[in-house]
Specification:
Elements: H1 3-16, H2 20-23, H3 27-40, E1 47-51, H4 57-64, E2 68-73, H5 76-86, E3 92-96, E4 109-115, H6 124-134, E5 135-147, H7 156-165, E6 168-174, E7 188-196
Parallel strand pairs: 1-2, 1-4, 2-3, 4-5
Antiparallel strand pairs: 5-7, 6-7
Helix pairs in contact: 1-5
The structure holds S-adenosylmethionine.
S-adenosylmethionine binds at residues 1, 9, 22, 52-54, 57-58, 73-75, 78, 98-100, 115-117, 120-121.
């Protein structure tokens, strides 16, 4: 990670929430993500690390559902907006940091959530091993990723292989429904849940 990387994201912070799946301003899109997260996460109360939290939209969605959420992002302007968005609503806290080695307590999280960040990290296998150490013995990784029409991203098979490489069982869920994105999509979008092997 370089400070230039975080500056690039800082510059995008002001318009980041304009995308339907980022700002969740449309009630139908918001409802789709809320239902998805409720189906993939253990029931609240539970402790969640939202890594690469951006403007904190998913963090706040979870906090309103009764989860305790620690958001980490290396772009100070993203963290400033996430903090402002959460306001005095209880249950969420945001810090500036590199998600490759977050300053969070090992073994403390029921969920490590990450949407649209893993694909861009230089050493995703190493990072997933680090994130797995953050989990409680019954904790789970919830990764939302894609292999986008731009050519960027990770395929479902690549993410499943990475999760399995970290010593977890992986379960993939396709996210084809336009309700998640505010429009029909034709590329590959999905969530992968990783749990410790039984
Ligand atoms: C595509 S946005 C996703 C934001 C959020 N997860 C969401 O889905 O709304 C990627 C975010 O990851 C952050 N990010 C990228 N690399 C990072 C790193 N190494 N450490 C911390 N944050 C990072 C960026 O600053 C940006 O806020």
């Amino acid at each position: 990670m370089t400070s230039r990387d975080s500056q690039v994201w800082d510059a995008q912070a002001a318009t980041f929430d304009d995308e339907p799946d980022h700002g969740l301003h449309d009630p139908l899109v918001r409802e789709a993500w809320q239902s998805l997260l409720r189906s993939l996460l253990p029931p609240a109360p539970a402790r969640v690390a939202d890594l690469g939290c951006g403007t904190g939209t998913l963090s706040l969605l979870l906090a309103t559902d009764g989860y305790a959420v620690d958001g980490v992002d290396f772009a100070p302007e993203m963290v400033r907006r996430a903090t402002a968005k959460a306001g005095t609503f209880p249950g969420s806290a945001f810090v500036v940091g590199d998600v490759a080695d977050p300053a969070l307590t090992d073994g403390a999280y029921d969920v490590v959530l990450c949407r649209h960040v893993l694909w861009a990290l230089p050493s995703p296998a190493q990072v997933l091993e680090r994130w797995t150490r953050l989990l409680t013995p019954t904790g789970r990784l919830v990764l939302v990723e894609g292999s986008w029409s731009t050519g960027a991203g990770l395929t479902t098979a690549e993410t499943v292989a990475l999760v399995e490489g970290a010593g977890l069982d992986a379960e993939a869920h396709r996210l084809d429904d336009p309700a998640y994105w505010g429009r029909p999509i034709s590329d590959e979008r999905y969530a992968v849940v990783g749990r410790r092997l039984a």
